[in-house]
Amino acid sequence: MKIGVNTWVWVSPLTNEHLEKLVPHVAGLGFDWIEFPLEDTSLLDYKKAGEIVRQHNLGVSVCGAMSLDRDFIHPDPVIQQNAVNYTRECIDACAQLGASTLGGPFYSGVGRTWQQTPEEREKDMQILVGYLRSAAEYAAAHGVTICIEALNRFETSFINLTDQVIEVVERVDHPACQAMIDTFHLNIEEPRIGDAVRKLGKRLRHVHSNENDRGTPGTGHFPWQELAQALKDIQYDGALVIESFTPEVKSIARAAAIWRPLAPSPDFLAQEGCKFLKQITS
């Protein structure tokens, strides 16, 4: 498995200037992988970014930022179209970067919660599946897989469980639409971490490896050995990416509720987390 880190640990939004400094820094901290969150798809030169990543022998993935104005199942069709356009822009960015994985909550805006009847949910699910099937076809043509992420109940009311992710993946029924997990959210929502991972099986293509408080992996109460065993059981060989946040992340700051530093420094969180994740996966 490759151990990576999302640049949200240090900066938001990510720009070309940040990237030229962060990529060698991430490699120097011992990581195998780097992940770029795309809050604003216009801020990076993706071709140049890909060249810098390859120069430092890092794998790369992209993380979507589904702000409240990007939502596939919002009642406002303008906001739905924003989600469609943004997802395509992220896929284009992946293709230029050389990234084959695009992860995130590609269904509704982070922080939007609402109650639904089963009938209302089914209507929204049909809308989502239609959009995601089209997005998956576009992604496949660019060598990209979209990985759907469940969030905890405080950040969305639509997809909270791995069972719900599986439903989406099965209904989209396209090889370029698969699943990812984020251990922070699993720790809140899943009764058994290992069972949830094993249920995903080969659908699991990406992992955000976060401590229960989004601090340094290995310093909290998340059951890391249970996760490691489950990943081994399903023969997962993808990336484990630390995704914590600087309080500067404006696009999802309120939903993610990052109001204070989560470690003595971003470098401490990243470097110590990297050592820990390499230890449990070795």
Protein described:
With about 280 residues, the chain is an alpha/beta fold. The chain has one domain: Alpha-Beta Barrel (TIM Barrel). About 45% of the residues lie in helices and about 15% in strands. It is built from ten helices and eight strands. An eight-stranded parallel beta barrel has the order 1-2-3-4-5-6-7-8, surrounded by seven helices. Helix 2 crosses helix 3, helix 3 packs parallel to helix 4 and helix 7 runs parallel beside helix 8. The radius of gyration is 17 Å and the shape is globular. It starts with a strand and ends with a helix.
Task: Indicate the topology.
Elements: E1 2-6, H1 16-28, E2 33-38, H2 46-55, E3 59-64, H3 77-97, E4 101-104, H4 118-141, E5 145-149, H5 162-172, E6 177-182, H6 183-189, H7 193-200, E7 204-208, H8 224-233, E8 239-242, H9 253-256, H10 266-281
Helix pairs in contact: 2-3, 3-4, 7-8
Q: Residue ranges: pLDDT <50 for 5 or more in a row?
A: none
Strand percentage lies at 5-15%
- Helical stretch tally: 10
Task: Determine the N-to-C terminus distance.
Answer: 9 Å
Summarize the structure.
The chain is an alpha/beta fold and 282 residues long. Helices cover 44% and strands 15% of the residues.
Structure keywords:
single chain, 282 residues, alpha/beta, 10 helices, 8 strands, 44% helix, 15% strand
